[in-house]
Amino acid sequence: MSHSALELPPTLRVERSGKVAVLTLARPEKRNALSDETVLGIERFFTHLPEDVACVVLAADGDHFCAGLDLAEMAERDTLGGVRHSRMWHRAFEQIEFGTVPVVAALKGAVIGGGLELAAATHIRVAERSTFYALPEGMRGLFVGGGGSVRIPRLIGVARMADLMLTGRRYDAEQGAAVGLSQYVADDGAGLDLALDLAARIAENAPQSNYAIVQALPRIAEANPREGYVMESMMAAIAQGTGDAKQRMQAFLDGRAQKVTDR
User: Which residues are catalytic?
Assistant: First the structure.
């Protein structure tokens, strides 16, 4: 199904740039707070990616990436309803983290609560200098429910996440990059262009390599080392056994391939 035929809520917008699809959070008047409709739209987008999309950029309208869960939608749920709501977010964000292609997030302004949980599900994060991170759930009597307690400690460690939640501390863009919340920092207004440049570069990689990096790398890293080594050897053999890999290696041996120093 093409994205033009895919029904998405008005809070999301899709554009194409070659082999890169750009999904934009389009609710700037609410600082792109995540409604259930938006989260389900994100899931729908990632489960219906066209085969010719090789990378996705997750962007946002306005001054802020995402201020988190839309608190206006917080209905009086019973315990089971709360579990089901959280699991819906888990299901949607898993389509980002373990989908078919790498995802680059262009962050700016508020990346708070559920917005940080969303960003943590992406693979590469570019933060403009205006970016600030926070997890205010503790102040609201809540707990993270969008996968943050699993994904964010992998990036910054349990102690730093506990500090954010217990004290209401904020990290700015430079602090966030230093602890692992982003891999790049860009000047204000330049984050999306850098994210698009990175995505275009990623889209030129061999698809089997990108797929292995998204699907296998995090699982190998979390595995028992003995099992991890076996998974790595199998993934390496699968990747190098493709016709695409053989052509790329021959191009390198013939001196026709781009060198690392060219980038």
Answer: 117, 137
